[in-house]
Amino acid sequence: MSDRTHRALRPSVWGVIAVAVAVLPVRAADPSFELDVLPILSKAGCNGGGCHGAIAGKGGFRLSLFGYDPPSDYRSIARDARGRRVDLADPGTSLLLTKPTMALAHKGGKRLDVDGDDYRTLAAWIGAGCPGPRADERKLVGIELGPAESVAAPGQTVMLTVTAGFSDGSTRDVTRWARFTSADETVATVDPAGHVGFVGHGAGAVTAWYSSRIAVARVIAPFPHAVSPADYASAPRANLIDDLNLAQLQQLHLKPSPPCDEPTFLRRAFLDTIGRLPNPEEVRGYLADRSPGKKERLVDLLLARPEFIDYWAYKWSDVLLVTGSKLRPEAVNAYAGWIRDRVAENTPWDRFVREIVTARGSSIEHGATNFYAVHQDPETVAENVAQAFLSLSINCAKCHNHPLEKWTNDQYYAFANLFSRVRAKGWGGAVVAGDGKRTLFVETKGELLQPKTGKAQPPAPLDAPPLPMDEPADRRTALARWLTAPDNPSFTRAIVNRVWANFFGLGLVEPVDDLRSTNPASNEPLLAALAAFTIERGYDLKALMRLILLSETYARSSAPLPENIDDRRWFARAYPKRLMAEVLADAIADVTGVGDRYTEVVLDDGSTQPVQGYEEGTRALELRDSTVKSYFLRTFGRNTRAITCECERSSQPSLVQVLHLSNGSTLNDKLASKEGRVTQILATEPPAERLVEDAWLLALSRKPTDSERKPFEEMLAQALPEEKRAVVEDMYWSLLTSREFLFRH
Amino acid sequence: MFEFRVRRPGERALLCGAGPSRRDFLQIGALSAVGLSLPQYVRAATEGKVRPGCEKRSCIMIFNLGGPSNMDLWDMKPDAPAEIRGPFKPIRTKSDAFEVSELLPRHAAVADKFSLVRTCHHDGAAVHDAGWQIMQTGRRFTGGIQTPHAGSVASYLLGRRTDLPSFVVLPQLMGRGGGNLPNGQAGGFLGKAHDPFALMADPSQPDFRVPDLLPPDQISVARLDRRRKMREIVEGAARQFEASEDARLLDDNFHAAYRLITSPQAREAFELSREPQAVRERYGMNRFGQCCLLARRLVEHGVRFVTINTFLTVFDEITWDIHGSKPFTSIEGMKTVVCPMYDQGYSALIEDLHERGLLDDTLVTGLAEFGRTPKVNPAGGRDHWPQCFTCSFAGGGVQGGRVVGASDTIGGFPAERPVKPGEIVATIFHALGLDHETHLPGPAGRPFALTDFGTEPIRELFA
Known about the structure:
Chain A has 745 residues and is an alpha+beta fold. Helices cover 40% and strands 10% of the residues of chain A. In chain B, the strands form five sheets. Chain B has an eight-stranded mixed beta sheet with strand order 6-5-7-1-8-11-4-12, sandwiched between helices. Chain B has a two-stranded antiparallel sheet with strand order 2-3. In chain B, strands 9-10 form a two-stranded antiparallel ribbon.
């Protein structure tokens, strides 16, 4: 890997020109409103959301949020309030200067120094007659933050530079007016002047913001561990995942943990691929198999299991919002059924997405059309498409330019206008009534008006050229093409990250569905390589899963080494994660031998309605609808499918969950059940040794160690006959509440 | 993650949503080994420091589900025409600033301890669920984003003081309101970890016990102990969890749960039988009254935020929702059933907190989803009216005996000093010592202010 330390500006067109013609003077003859005045106000914090950038402004003075609307700001400053804010004859008495310097009382405090350059610039601008934005003025094209990657140690400082490039080819160092934030303050902090202070170990990023543009630089502080090149040369590697992962670990001085043992691998692969535990026969069989290639055979087996379909259909149903709180039962079944069929056929992901986005027809015969029934207004549909398939959140841009990303309000409405002609006949959306039958079609006319301008934006996918407004063809066709194109920077990364996060418990980008440009991956080259792989395999997700499952990175133990105990997102070891609510419910049912009955759905207001179609013993992963009533699933954080966001699902342990496991009905009733596993086992009157071993195989997919076996065998041996049942139940209880059971590790 | 608040010079940028740094957490984790665990709920170190002197503050939110009628209770208009003023008369109170209805004599006796805000209003739909959501979280839910309940925010920012949960709802979560909207009694985007602990039991019942807090009957103390020991053996060699925060959190919670289950102090908080009968009767031997008493005990034992749902649903229960026609309550039902119960329970709570020296540190706020129509309807009742209604505040630094805002001559709209839901919630945060401009980690990492920009607490209530 080439040394990218302290790299200077990446060669770019305007950078080369700048070198050729020399950097232009810092200021033109008169200060420019857009290029000088506004950046000063942004830097001083005047137009932040807590101050004058608020919707209502402050103290009667309103600026656009972070300066996204220069003409409006010019009016506010130079024209509004009868021009009181600026005094052309005596600039120093302008409110624009007297307030932020506290010459007059200012609730926002002191923002400018009377002796500073910025004050002088503003005064000069006022003195020049408040020149407004000029048509012939050079426009900002972009910014660069350098060095693009810095490697340093805690305690060291690196100075960043922000260079602005303009339409006339000039560049300018705008570092002093840029705002800086660190994406991971446990690695490095950054001060307002762009000094990066390394405070901890790891790989992070710093973002610079200037005039509605964002640039990112990586900051790396290797861990202080004693590692040698041999540690990496000798580490087991199976495929490209391991090569790229080990390369990063080497840069960070983190040592990879050794592979986990076979029982752990078996359990992990079962849970991550098909959402269920291996049964004791499967455990025994795998451990006894000594022939080569058994891991590959296991992986192929899992990818072909029928439970694979349930598990992945369920996960995609979370993303696509299959919920009875928004759809009628028949439509829910159609939607869930369509998803299931696609998973069963292993439909390539790009085709899957295209079919959803361009769906039309009956909501019952073409289940995918329900994507447009869950939300029916173009804005929300647009947001869902961006979130579900690009992992981009454009919501903020609905009202103003997106403060975290580069999306403008114009772009938001251009994107939403792609969906403005989608219409439906039939069921209108009342959740408690109607048959849910709805026919989706596309009009040849109609636009979405942008509230800010009162006009429609030409329909355009994000960052793509607009479509002709009067074109009658279904705009979604063009959208689908753009969305699933291999050169769409977010589409492939988004799905790769979701699949990765499923197997590793943590995405390469976190949160899983937040692929903002200011939220870089923990290992960019790896994510890029996996995206390329996925494209090359035609978006066959099983191919990606196979690559992951067979990698050595996936197979690592979660037990830390001293040289990786502080690894938190670079996969030097596995990260334990509490089982998903549905997987947990099913696992408990499997071990205790008592299934669940799902008979009702719960609407948003808490009222319940009966639901048909779920027989006794239905597994949670077979549920089609997120509103099916289950105290257990609710308590353990199932995704309620109210919005498309992985954040809706929680795998965090809570006190209520623990109380329920300890004292609640789920475990206690199932363990005590006369028809359950405990009864079944005791009926054959097995010896204590067998009792203990079976319990471990069932619940933890392994045999007990001697230090576990002995005390339990003793407790069983010493139990009075009338107590034996209770002791066995308690043994199972202790297994089912252990972290080893509750977590995939 | 980004900090939206304007940074003052020298101030470190705060990481929204990441909570304490990993190093902080490793220290907290070390505490768990000796059972002194306060998991990642402890946020005060990085967000919203508590104002000095407010460290012991708690809140009891009484949510008057149904929507009490202000002109029959707290904002009477005796000079209005008969079809507005209704059948009841105002009476003098211990406060010089306001009178209350003849239906609330005990309120009159403690009127020097509570204050009224008479000009609350919101622009949400005039259905129960919308009002529940708006008044308890300060915001109407839009775009699928569920704002957390004020109690969940307190739980998130302030954490737990003892082994008891930091946010409790009595007697259980709200039920059906007739719409199909979430009611706001949850952690929302803060996550399940900050959902309230709902009692799910009626404390006025003779066999009252807390579900899931105590093991089922067949699990004796001996079995409880055996289970714990067995679990420790199983957990014994678990090296693979050494470096996992979530695993540590789960473990912490098991320790916390065990302590809660077996801690006499924690169990004691819920044991109403420890109260003298006279005290129980002072509050009223009904569900609401006993919830008020239980709330006092919980706050005494360190719970930070208790929400009491005065009623659970407007259907088929006698509530504040006096439409006058079936299945809703009539104005007569309010007079004979609801007001005596409420008057007794509320005044008992205020007096009891005061006598025990707890009132200064306990904010007691009475909220509702809306008020009721100025004009009495043909059925002799009143319908929904979110345009102007009354909320009450007592304790937690609030000065009693005051009125904030004045409604117009018929109680239809605010004439002076309108108050929005965000201000109500900001007032609660202020009483708890929190800076209402703190940010929470919202969904998809978007920073979320506790209240919308420009919202201030109702300062007229405080000193």
